[in-house]
């Protein structure tokens, strides 16, 4: 009888161990067997955009106890900006950041968030591009999820875009016939053409060579990008046109998102908010320093005080944008204007 009882207890114990092991396996990733996600982007690792990706990855590892590991691939290692966006939709890359205009291959309407001269200030920008609270972005984020299986997780301020060239520019007429690199998306092409230039769509990885060989006469980007990508080595003048105040959306594959546990979704959401604030403040605090760095590197900075006709650029660009997108995006522009 004792042998039978002992045998029965051993069987029960074994079943219990197997059940516990099964439960542990079903409970999700662990530090010993982490979930590994790939995050790819186009920027240098040392840029504000690159640093925020690393910040996000480090915080996720910390707050999940190592159960989720995010591997960051900077500097277009995994493709062009459009290829990386498509890869997130296909699921071969889990996460990616881009401009809103750069995500237009996934959903054309997202380009409206990069409309020139759209936002009152950085606070307005961040509220209008918050996927949790912005009525316009909430609507379009759902369309992105439904149509392409991609979710905007958060957006961060990455600077206000300025024009650079190898000759001084004061008004749109100074750009007549000049080839200015534009992000390959409709809203950026419209912005550059509205400035009076010939827009040349070139992927970011090819820009330094395009500028040094004359394929493009100039380009436009935030001052942080001008510094971290050494644009001062191939451009002599920077015009403070302030034409696009930008935030960059960080996207995640929807199947990856839905595969996270409720606890891990909560951690991702909390880290997303923290990273948004950290990155936005980092960029704001460094903008003046970046302008000084450009001066120290030999660039001539041209501002409104130096005769830059910002109002002429605003009027010229706004006309082109309204002609091309006003009918389709007017509803969303009103929603963004109403954000307090």
Percentage beta strand: 15-25%
Major β-sheet profile: 7 strands, mixed
Number of helices: 11
Unreliable sequence segments: 1-25
Element-by-element helix/strand order: HEHEHEHHEEHEHEHEHHEH
How many runs of DSSP E, i.e. beta strands? Answer: 9
Anisotropy-based shape:
globular
Q: Find the structural class using helix and strand composition.
A: alpha/beta
Rounded to the nearest angstrom, the distance between the terminal CA atoms is 78 Å
- Mean pLDDT across the residues is 92
Radius of gyration: 24 Å
Determine the fraction of residues in helical runs and give it as a percent range. Answer: 40-55%
Structural features:
340 residues, alpha/beta, 7-stranded mixed beta sheet, two-stranded parallel ribbon, 9 strands, 19% strand
């Amino acid at each position: 009888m004792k042998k039978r009882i002992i045998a029965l207890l051993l069987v029960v114990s074994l079943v219990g161990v197997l059940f516990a092991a099964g439960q542990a396996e079903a409970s999700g990733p662990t530090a010993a067997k982490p979930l590994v996600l790939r995050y790819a982007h186009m920027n240098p690792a040392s840029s504000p955009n690159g640093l925020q990706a690393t910040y996000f990855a480090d915080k996720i590892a910390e707050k999940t106890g190592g159960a989720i590991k995010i591997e960051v691939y900077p500097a277009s290692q995994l493709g062009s900006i459009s290829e990386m966006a498509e890869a997130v939709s296909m699921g071969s890359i889990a996460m990616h950041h881009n401009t809103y205009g750069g995500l237009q291959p996934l959903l054309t309407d997202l380009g409206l968030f990069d409309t020139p001269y759209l936002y009152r200030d950085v606070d307005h920008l961040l509220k209008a591009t918050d996927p949790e609270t912005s009525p316009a972005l909430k609507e379009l984020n759902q369309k992105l999820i439904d149509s392409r299986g991609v979710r905007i997780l958060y957006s961060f301020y990455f600077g206000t875009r300025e024009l650079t060239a190898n000759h001084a520019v004061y008004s749109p007429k100074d750009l007549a016939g000049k080839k200015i690199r534009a992000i390959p998306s409709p809203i950026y092409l419209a912005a550059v053409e509205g400035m009076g230039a010939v827009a040349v769509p070139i992927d970011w990885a090819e820009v330094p060579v395009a500028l040094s060989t004359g394929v493009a006469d100039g380009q436009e980007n935030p001052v942080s990008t001008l510094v971290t990508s050494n644009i001062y080595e191939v451009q002599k003048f920077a015009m403070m046109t302030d034409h696009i105040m930008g935030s960059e959306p960080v996207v995640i594959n929807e199947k990856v998102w839905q595969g996270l546990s409720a606890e891990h979704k909560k951690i991702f959401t909390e880290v997303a908010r923290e990273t948004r604030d950290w990155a936005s403040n980092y960029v704001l605090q460094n903008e003046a320093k970046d302008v000084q760095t450009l001066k120290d590197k030999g660039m001539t900075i041209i501002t409104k005080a130096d005769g830059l006709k910002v109002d002429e650029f605003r009027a010229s660009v706004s006309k082109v944008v309204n002609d091309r997108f006003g009918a389709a995006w007017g509803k969303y522009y009103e929603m963004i204007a109403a954000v307090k």
